[in-house]
Amino acid sequence: MHALTGHTRTLQIPSPYLLFLGDVELAGFAKTALGLRDWAPEKCLGELALPTARVTTGLAAMTPAEAAAKGAKSLVIGIASVGGAIKPEWMPSLIAALEAGLNLVNGMHTRLSDQPELVAAAERLGRRLIDVRVPPANIPIGTGIKRPGKRLLTVGTDCALGKKYTALALTRAFAERGLDADFRATGQTGIMIAGGGMPMDAVVADFESGAAEILSPPAAPDHWDVIEGQGSLFHPGYAAVSLGLLHGSQPDVIVICHEPGRDVVLGCDGFAIPSIEEAIALNLTLGRRTNPAIRCAGVSLNTSALSDVDALALCAAESKRLGLPVADPLRGGEAFAALVESCLA
Amino acid sequence: MHALTGHTRTLQIPSPYLLFLGDVELAGFAKTALGLRDWAPEKCLGELALPTARVTTGLAAMTPAEAAAKGAKSLVIGIASVGGAIKPEWMPSLIAALEAGLNLVNGMHTRLSDQPELVAAAERLGRRLIDVRVPPANIPIGTGIKRPGKRLLTVGTDCALGKKYTALALTRAFAERGLDADFRATGQTGIMIAGGGMPMDAVVADFESGAAEILSPPAAPDHWDVIEGQGSLFHPGYAAVSLGLLHGSQPDVIVICHEPGRDVVLGCDGFAIPSIEEAIALNLTLGRRTNPAIRCAGVSLNTSALSDVDALALCAAESKRLGLPVADPLRGGEAFAALVESCLA
């Protein structure tokens, strides 16, 4: 990691983590814990679950005191409740974590800092309550001034189709090739995986591109920031977030993320998903404003609904049609290697 | 004005106003008061100045008690201080206004609600402290769902070149033609002029287009909302605000605002101002996402630096070059009438 410049720092989360599973019964509500296990295993020491829990990460069970003895710095709430509340049943575990010397980390809408019992305990014990949806203070207005270092941004034809995992997979692939690369997180799960970042959707609009600028600060000329995209320029609710992130990131390279078979924007029935070609063209047109050298290295397809054979065939066909590398990063293989090479070309 | 729908209302300011000039010595620091006098004369009862003031609006001088007796509902801080602070010298006047029954209205960065003395007096007296830079709570995510009524948005090749005054002049011209038209304000001065609105640059990015949607709610089919633009799609700091406003406004008509002779983006030396044609094309491309029928009705030039003769000649030449009506709304005349007709065509 490179030192951040300027007066405002991005959010930073002390690690390693103890993952809190609470009383979770369905894996779908434990996405944060499972994502951390898969993408930040070096940060995850163990898990803490209530007796009623029906999901496990497979990591060692441990109490907050045991985790603290092994070096844990934070207990991460790795689950979501219906409605996003911090449930009363969780409180004894959260207090025990503070008492054991851990900070608390939360990515849900409800804030730890709005729970008087937790605030009192954290103050008494000198621990931090870290709500990762809360941006830092004093974010500057974006300047557009070009920063040294190389940057890649994952962008999408819609929300929630693989921009985070594509960025994580590319960061991992860059590191495996011996390159100096950082994953730059822009959403709550990504921020926990990275141990820091900027919750771009929670930043005041006037400071949106400025937030992206401090998220990926000036770096060595051969350093790569691989930046998690947010939303889509075509989304009637979230395009402002996407444009501020694109302008502030100044990407040299974009990778377009798309889910085959999704025809309509998530939650917006009247809005067709743009074609991959439209998404490439609009992102390049707008991205050129802060980086005239921006280029599209290829396409990441979320093929989780397809068989291996169908996924491979689709990537090959789309690659031929578009004249660009097309791969599902979570399937790896030669197609993904070609996408990685195209990013670095 | 049409009733706002949904649970969240935009900011509303009780009028008429008493304009507070404090100790202002230069007209440049009294822009808000002078703008209110020019564009909302029906809302302005009088002015209150300290003996050291060197600027006047020309309105009758009156004490808060005299203004309240004439029906005033709010004292508006019509000046800006260097650094945006609420100066100690102003405090006796502000307290006197609260005691006389007036609410306080402030558009500077410093908040009335952060001044303990004012908060205590307002609570004791049952008055409101209205910081117009603070957006309302519970703004929804934008849906993109098309709303009835006609909408015009002023957009620009840069910041601070006439988007507010163009929208005000068009609203006035529409009303003079007997049309039902509302000016919809998106910045602090505009909000005071309109008596309400949405401070778009202070809204959290995820809710930017949603804020624009509630700013111009569903209306009668022949009703016009004339919406004050913000920033520019080409500004490396503010484009997120501009895109959220464009998507949420769903304009049927845009008018491009431009200042001849300005070559570089305000405060961003490395960034050239786009051509008028580029600004038209990009606004239409992005605006089509939420209103496929969007069109550009013409161009508003800020010719304040030119002589009458030069301004007229430039508007005529640009109109011929672009094939669109081009006018300076503050100069009126046939060119402006043609621009108005084009908006309504």
From TrEMBL, chains A, B:
<dbReference type="InterPro" id="IPR011669">
    <property type="entry name" value="DgcN-like"/>
</dbReference>
<feature type="domain" description="D-glutamate N-acetyltransferase-like C-terminal">
    <location>
        <begin position="141"/>
        <end position="334"/>
    </location>
</feature>
<dbReference type="InterPro" id="IPR035086">
    <property type="entry name" value="DgcN-like_C"/>
</dbReference>
<dbReference type="Pfam" id="PF17396">
    <property type="entry name" value="DUF1611_N"/>
</dbReference>
<dbReference type="InterPro" id="IPR035402">
    <property type="entry name" value="DgcN-like_N"/>
</dbReference>
<protein>
    <submittedName>
        <fullName>DUF1611 domain-containing protein</fullName>
    </submittedName>
</protein>
<feature type="domain" description="D-glutamate N-acetyltransferase-like N-terminal">
    <location>
        <begin position="58"/>
        <end position="135"/>
    </location>
</feature>
<dbReference type="Pfam" id="PF07755">
    <property type="entry name" value="DUF1611"/>
</dbReference>
